[in-house]
UniProtKB/TrEMBL annotation:
This is Ribulose-phosphate 3-epimerase. It comes from the Bacteria. It is an enzyme of class 5 (isomerase). It catalyses: D-ribulose 5-phosphate = D-xylulose 5-phosphate. Keywords: Carbohydrate metabolism, Isomerase, Metal-binding. Its cofactor is Mn(2+); Fe(2+); Co(2+); a divalent metal cation. It comes from Streptomyces thermodiastaticus. PROSITE patterns: RIBUL_P_3_EPIMER_1, RIBUL_P_3_EPIMER_2. Its EC number is 5.1.3.1. NCBIfam families: PRK05581.1-4 (NF004076), rpe (TIGR01163).
Length: 228
């Protein structure tokens, strides 16, 4: 799959969300970080804001739920208009049932792993998912440094996806920028969340295009190397 860029509005101006969403039209997704001050020590926004954002932009919403009890809340984000809903496996009680419910309601189902959560126990769940999110920072805040100790986990996950012949997308989130996106693409990620690297730039739309170009070039170099 061609690399996709998902700018995170966590780094945008929350008083101007509609304008900030429009500033990155051309991106594949708009990443919406939902935090409840329990699963992570930060509080952002909820269902009503997602409903408004879905009306304010044509870019599909990629909702990253950093909340307790996603089994209860995630379906409401599909109803609010999200195109993709990511729940954390550490918070979910019944991840298979939840992924099936998200899909049945019409969104892409995605599961996230915190940095200390290994992929291996969840190998058998992969066919139930449309995307897996590997956090490359501890969730909770934008602008943190990329954890390069996550690169082996990205590689192992890409190998598991290949082994099972799945179409699953592999997303990375946290500290993704011009200096780190190529390592992520080389390790096998294909959906890149970037908050401060996009909204901290003077031209966010241009930052999205530049990140996509870097990811495309790194992906084609990596596939050339693997094929030869
Ligand atoms: O989920 C999160 C943080 O928990 C992210 O989506 C951040 O918003 C990414 O921001 P940068 O690290 O790219 O600044
Ligand atoms: Fe996120």
């Amino acid at each position: 799959m061609a690399p996709q860029i998902s700018p995170s509005i966590l780094s945008a101006d929350f008083a101007r969300l509609a304008e900030e969403a429009k500033a990155v039209e051309g991106a594949d997704w708009l990443h919406v970080d939902v935090m409840d001050n329990h699963f992570v020590p930060n509080l952002t926004l909820g269902v009503p804001v997602v409903e408004s954002l879905a009306r304010a932009t044509d870019t599909p919403l990629d909702c990253h739920l950093m909340i307790e009890d996603p089994d209860r809340w995630a379906p409401q984000y599909v109803e609010a208009g999200a195109g993709s809903v990511t729940f954390h496996v550490e918070a979910a009680t019944a991840p298979v049932r939840l992924a099936r419910e998200i899909r049945a309601k019409g969104a892409r189902a995605s599961m996230a792993l915190r940095p200390a959560t290994p992929i291996e126990p969840y190998e058998d769940l992969l066919p139930e998912l449309d995307m897996l999110l590997i956090m490359t920072v501890e969730p909770g805040f934008g602008g943190q440094a990329f954890l390069d100790i996550m690169l082996p986990k990205i590689r192992r996950t890409r190998e598991l996806i290949g082994k099972h012949g799945l179409e699953l997308w592999l997303q990375v989130d946290g500290g993704v920028s011009a200096s780190t996106i190529e390592q992520c693409a080389d390790a096998g990620a294909d959906v890149f969340v970037a908050g401060s690297a996009v909204y901290g730039a003077s031209d966010p739309a241009e930052a999205v295009r530049a990140l996509r170009k870097q990811a495309e070039e790194a992906t084609s170099r990596a596939s050339w190397l693997h094929d030869h």
